[in-house]
């Protein structure tokens, strides 16, 4: 879908997807997981796919969101919205701090800075046992009820109810971020990605925009982390480790850089593959590695581009047939 | 109305012990076309980088319309009224020609770049202005093409067009004809003649014909220093200048 | 006091392994401006190949010599088929592609050798400990320090004294220089990559009797190696040595009183160096 696709079309597309997904996967839990990681991959895509920055510490925001939401649910019995608000605040502020420092350097140095901050966060969480539960993580995180104050609070304890909530958050976030990438701000990010030097020369204060996109990325990633903790009833330390950062990057790249839909596909394929393949063929990550190399070398659009081409092919094939039929009828 | 729009006072730029510019003095009068010439490596691009704020000066002062701008950030200078083009074409290659120009226009209104809640409008003033610029360059039919698909000559024109989007009062053109075939050069000359009606132009150029035809004044750099300054005729007759270019030819 | 000496020696041994990793990374980066995230996986391959050769031949020395050579051959194949096409790409792209390579290598290791790490025992003459008064230290670790010191010295001599070394240094300082001098940069790049990766392979082989061979051993090692290279200065060979020793010593010495804090310190120091001294302690400014 290109830049000019109206927002209503985007809305219909993701709303339909959110309805079909749990049925197709036959599991509201797996479906929730897909949407949650799609949000995290989208957070990465904003930086990598849209701005050209490779962040190696996204797990920090994911973990921060998980801890913030879990802590407020455990200690203050907060309802759902305040929990997510705390997560967003934690992720956004952390991302602004990390972004502010990391964007002072380029290339490998930028990557190493984000990695270093991610690792610092990991070891701090590991040491702060009293707050984060250290190695054990935070156990018994309740799924906070949805309390809108005007109607009685809605319990999200059942998996289907929780999926419904995740789907709602996902659709709202997706639409907002699709708007963002189509907006004037999004166009500046494109400019930075394409040619940073020229973007500065024509008058953009590039550092400021980079920090802004970090903030958005941190917010949506933290939101994903918060929902994930409530899905699992558990905020493990591993949320915040390098491997989580890597998985988020894999999903983002695999699905396709520069397309929010790609991130859904990337998260979906990764999670479904690991769910189904790891029993049949535990070495499926071999294919993932090969696919990464292929995508980066030949098809930055990733699986999403593949799907689009396939669709065009099917359409084109159909049209070919029609044309042939017409010819036949002429005879 | 003859007064300097740009005044450079003993500007130096050092890289380690090496002076890329040394004690450069330069006055560019309003509504003129002023050329900076000199052999390769003379420090012309470095001077432009200092004027545009892309590199920090080591010493000296730059005044634009009588205000000191020496320490202004690079991104602030288009807003002040200084636009620049690059010697090595520097576009947003994957974006359309129109989008390249629109982005350059939008950059002047920082608050607009922060809008993240609605799409880029189809009929904003920047797009209107971008079409105007394209028309001035005779490139309207290329508006929707991606910048990287343009020919070299067209890319060079777009390079200038992006600088124009800032409606600059001072336009810095770094070798606008670099890499162009002889056939394309008249187009650049006629563009510069049109542009001098709306802004002051400071340009770096190797093409002698172009300099002689459109420039009012010429400053010659060699090894980072100004060795001559005057009308094209005066400069052409200058012994030091002849020697500098002879040195290059040898 | 002897406990202290013991930790210092451990730090040096660890540091010297890091040095092998980091030296390889840094000459590859310096020469080709290439960031190799598959370096850690190739280090693991070195450990496994060492295990395999010992398993077949029963000879540790054969394993130690053959493993890095085989890793070098693997590097040659990789360079010829894939890596050489990546030199002109930006760092994020190089990183993402070599992450893919890392995954492939790791999974192939798991396919061949299974998921259980393989133990490697040192040769008989290097088992046991050296006793000097009341100072006790394993022979094998002494051996590691000695071997890496010799290799480091050899590398240094090669870089300083041979034509090839001069080319590498010229290339690390200014990649344009190589082509300006009319050198065959394709060949030079291949040799540099193979040499750098073989050093990682040697590191893996050397550490296998201490830590065993483990498919995931490269993850931590890669992180540390990058920290070392950044601290020392990307592209700087003496920087790699100094950085490696600093990191190894800090890790060993703080293991006594604040083991969990070690990593915090290492990453904090790296972040500070990138922000305050982006060319590292030994890089040119
Ligand atoms: N970033 C830099 N670091 C070191 N030297 C530089 C740098 N930029 C330019 N120079 C040197 O400054 C001199 C002038 O370069 P430049 O201004 O590009 O010349 P011109 O545009 O007149 O051909 C050249 O010798 C060039 O090598
Ligand atoms: Mg120049």
Give an overview of the whole structure.
Helices cover 77% and strands 0% of the residues of chain A. Chain A is mainly α. In chain A, 55% of the residues are buried. Chain A is globular. In chain A, helix 2 packs across helix 11 (242-255). Chain B has helices spanning 44-52, 77-80, 97-106, 110-113, 125-136, 152-164, 185-195, 208-214, 232-237, 239-249, and strands at 4-15, 18-29, 33-37, 59-64, 67-68, 82-85, 170-174, 200-204, 217-222, 225-230. In chain B, helix 3 packs across helix 5 (125-136) and helix 3 (97-106) runs parallel beside helix 6 (152-164). Chain B has 2 domains: 1-81 and 169-250, 3-Layer(aba) Sandwich (Rossmann fold), CATH 3.40.50; 90-167, no CATH class. By secondary structure, chain B is of the alpha/beta class. Chain B has a 6-stranded mixed β-sheet, with helices on both faces. The model of chain B has no long low-confidence stretch (mean pLDDT 89). In chain C, strand 1 (129-132) and strand 2 form a beta hairpin. In chain C, helix 9 packs across helix 10. Chain C has one domain. In chain C, 75% of the residues lie in helices and 3% in strands. Chain C is mainly alpha-helical and 285 residues long. The chains are: A mainly alpha (331), B alpha/beta (250), C mainly alpha (285). At the A-C interface, helix 5, helix 11 and helix 13 of A face helix 4, helix 9 and helix 11 of C. The structure holds adenosine-5'-diphosphate (ADP) and magnesium ion (MG).
What is the name of the CATH architecture of chain A? Orthogonal Bundle
CATH superfamily of the largest domain in chain B, please?
Answer: P-loop containing nucleotide triphosphate hydrolases
Q: The biggest beta sheet of chain A, please? A: none
Tell me the Rg of chain B in angstroms.
18 Å
User: Total helix count of chain A?
Assistant: 14
Mean pLDDT score of chain A: 88
Spatial extent as radius of gyration of chain A: 21 Å
Strand content of chain B: 25-35%
By DSSP (H or I, 4+ residues per run), the number of helices of chain B equals 10
Tell me which ligands are bound: adenosine-5'-diphosphate, magnesium ion
- Name the CATH architecture of the largest domain in chain B: 3-Layer(aba) Sandwich
Low-confidence stretches of chain B: none
Distance between the termini of chain B: 43 Å
């Amino acid at each position: 879908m290109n830049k000019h696709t109206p927002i209503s079309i985007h809305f219909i597309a993701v709303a339909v997807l959110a309805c079909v997904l749990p049925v197709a996967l036959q599991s509201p839990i797996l479906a929730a997981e897909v949407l949650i990681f799609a949000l995290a991959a989208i957070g990465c895509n904003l930086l990598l796919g849209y701005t050209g920055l490779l962040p190696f510490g996204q797990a920090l925001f994911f973990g921060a969101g998980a801890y913030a939401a879990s802590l407020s649910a455990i200690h203050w019995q907060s309802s759902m919205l305040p929990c997510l608000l705390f997560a967003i605040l934690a992720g956004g502020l952390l991302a602004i701090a990390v972004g502010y420092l990391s964007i002072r350097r380029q290339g490998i140095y930028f990557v190493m800075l984000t990695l270093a901050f991610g690792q610092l966060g990991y070891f701090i969480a590991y040491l702060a046992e009293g707050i984060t539960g250290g190695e054990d993580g935070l156990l018994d995180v309740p799924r906070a009820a949805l309390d809108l104050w005007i109607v009685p609070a809605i319990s999200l304890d059942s998996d289907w109810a929780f999926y419904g909530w995740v789907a709602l958050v996902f659709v709202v976030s997706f639409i907002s971020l699709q708007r963002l990438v189509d907006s004037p701000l999004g166009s500046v990010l494109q400019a930075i990605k394409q040619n940073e030097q020229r973007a500065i020369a024509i008058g953009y204060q590039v550092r400021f925009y980079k920090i802004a996109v970090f903030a958005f990325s941190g917010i949506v990633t933290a939101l994903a982390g918060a929902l994930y903790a409530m899905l699992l009833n558990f905020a493990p330390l591993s949320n915040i480790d390098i491997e989580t950062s890597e998985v988020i990057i894999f999903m983002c790249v695999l699905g396709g850089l520069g397309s929010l839909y790609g991130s859904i596909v990337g998260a979906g394929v990764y999670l479904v593959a690991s769910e189904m393949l790891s029993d049949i063929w535990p070495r499926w990550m071999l294919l993932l590695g090969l696919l990464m190399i292929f995508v980066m070398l030949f098809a930055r659009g990733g699986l999403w581009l593949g799907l689009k081409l396939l669709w065009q092919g099917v359409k084109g094939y159909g049209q070919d047939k029609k044309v042939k039929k017409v010819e036949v009828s002429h005879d | 109305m003859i007064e300097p729009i740009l005044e450079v006072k003993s500007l130096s730029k050092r890289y380690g012990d090496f002076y890329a510019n040394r004690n450069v003095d330069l006055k560019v009068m309003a509504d003129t076309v002023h050329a900076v010439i000199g052999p390769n490596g003379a420090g012309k691009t470095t001077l432009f980088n200092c004027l545009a704020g892309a590199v920090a000066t080591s010493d000296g002062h730059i005044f634009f319309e009588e205000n000191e701008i020496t320490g202004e950030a690079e991104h602030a200078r288009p807003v002040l009224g200084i636009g620049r083009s690059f010697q090595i074409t520097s576009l947003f290659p994957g974006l359309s020609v129109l989008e390249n120009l629109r982005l350059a226009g939008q950059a002047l209104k920082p608050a607009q770049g922060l809008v993240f809640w609605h799409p880029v409008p189809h009929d904003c003033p920047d797009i209107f202005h971008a079409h105007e610029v394209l028309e001035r360059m005779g490139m309207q039919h290329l508006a929707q093409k991606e910048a990287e698909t343009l020919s070299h000559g067209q890319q060079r024109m777009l390079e200038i067009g992006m600088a124009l989007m800032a409606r600059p009062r001072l336009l810095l053109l770094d070798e606008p004809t670099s890499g162009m075939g002889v056939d394309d050069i008249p187009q650049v000359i006629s563009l510069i003649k049109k542009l001098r009606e709306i802004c002051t132009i400071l340009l770096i150029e190797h093409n002698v014909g172009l300099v002689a035809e459109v420039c009012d004044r010429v400053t010659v750099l060699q090894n980072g220093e100004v060795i001559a300054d005057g009308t094209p005729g005066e400069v052409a007759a200058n012994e030091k200048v002849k020697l500098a270019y002879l040195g290059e030819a040898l | 006091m002897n406990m202290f000496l013991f930790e210092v020696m451990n730090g040096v041994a660890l540091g010297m392994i890091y040095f092998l990793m980091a030296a390889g990374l840094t000459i590859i980066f310096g020469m080709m401006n290439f960031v190799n995230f598959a370096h850690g996986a190739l280090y693991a391959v070195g450990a496994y190949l060492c295990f395999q050769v010992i398993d077949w031949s029963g000879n540790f020395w054969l394993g130690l010599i053959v493993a890095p050579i085989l890793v070098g051959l693997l590097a040659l194949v990789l360079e010829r088929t894939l890596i050489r096409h990546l030199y002109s790409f930006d760092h994020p792209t190089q990183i993402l592609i070599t992450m893919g390579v890392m995954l492939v290598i790791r999974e192939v290791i798991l396919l061949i050798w299974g998921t259980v790490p393989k133990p490697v025992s040192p040769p008989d003459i290097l088992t046991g400990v050296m006793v000097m008064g009341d100072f006790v230290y394993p022979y094998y670790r002494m051996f590691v320090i000695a071997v890496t010191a010799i290799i480091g010295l050899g590398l240094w001599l090669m870089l300083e004294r041979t034509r090839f070394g001069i080319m590498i240094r010229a290339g690390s300082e200014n990649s344009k220089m190589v082509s300006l001098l009319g050198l065959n940069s394709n060949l030079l790049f291949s040799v540099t990559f193979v040499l750098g990766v073989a050093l990682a392979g040697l590191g893996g082989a050397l550490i296998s009797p201490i830590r065993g061979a483990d498919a995931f051993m490269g993850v931590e090692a890669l992180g540390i190696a990058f920290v070392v290279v950044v601290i020392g200065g990307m592209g700087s060979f003496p920087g790699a040595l100094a950085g490696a020793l600093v990191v190894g010593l800090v890790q060993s010495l703080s293991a006594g009183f604040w083991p969990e804090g070690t990593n915090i310190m290492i990453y904090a120091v790296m972040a500070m160096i990138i922000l305050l001294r982006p060319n590292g302690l030994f890089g040119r400014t």
